[in-house]
Amino acid sequence: MKRLEVSRPSTWVALTGFMGVGKTRIGRELAQELMLHFIDLDRYIERATGLSVADIFRYIGEDAFRRMEAEAVRELVGRDNLVLSLGGGTYTNPANRRLLLERGPVVALWASPETIHTRVQRRPGQRPLLAGDDALERIRRLMSQREAIYKEAHVHVSTDGRPAREVVREVIEKLWRLGEDE
Question: Which pLDDT score is estimated for 119?
């Protein structure tokens, strides 16, 4: 049987950015468009442990979760034909970031703190780092702390007020241009 060759800008992409920017939604649609596998890193860890991310944070702790996350990143950068949606904090780990940038490309998705706040309110209790009062202020503070780190990604796309299909088209266009620059 003859092997089907598909034209695409990349056979491996990681999506990073703050929680609620749309990494999972955009990742699924991007993988479909590029005919690649899709893995959401948080769901991957949940399946491996049998615990939700919130429960891992609650019962085992954030440090244990970050170790699981780093182990999963080391494993997944070795796979091909994959769109990988990272957790919001995954890319802040320097070892993870180095591996992901070397494997690349890494696409950072962006949204305003207000957009993120609206989006994460749809799933209360699912965001351990936002537990407690004044989630919007916590979002602003964390985004400010992480902004320079997310800017290290190869490609940047805003998801604010845009349909997923439009964002995916822009990501693909920028991935093609990135490939031309190499």
Answer: 83
Compute the Cα dihedral for 37, 152, 91, 161 and give only its sign: negative
Can you tell me the distance from the alpha carbon of 51 to that of 68, in angstroms, rounded to the nearest whole number?
12
Tell me if residue 110 falls in helix, strand or coil.
Answer: strand
Backbone angles phi, psi at 159, to 5 degrees: -110, 0
Q: Report pLDDT for 121.
A: 76
Q: Which residues pair with 40 in a beta bridge?
A: 85
Are 74 and 120 spatial neighbours (Cβ–Cβ below 8 Å)?
A: no
Question: With the CA atoms of 111, 117, 120 and 122 taken in that order, what torsion angle do they form, in degrees rounded to the nearest 10?
Answer: -120
pTM: 0.89
Measured CA to CA, the distance from residue 30 to residue 95 in angstroms comes to: 25
Q: Which two tokens stand for residue 92?
A: 């802040």
pLDDT tens for 63-91 read 999 999 999 999 999 999 999 999 989 99
Question: How far is 150 from 143, CA to CA, in rounded Å?
Answer: 9
The residues of the chain scoring below 50 in pLDDT are none
Is the CB of residue 88 less than 8 Å from the CB of residue 158? Answer: no
For residue 79, give every residue at least 6 positions away whose Cβ sits within 8 Å of its Cβ, in sequence order, or none. Answer: 12, 37
Strands 12-16 and 37-40: unpaired
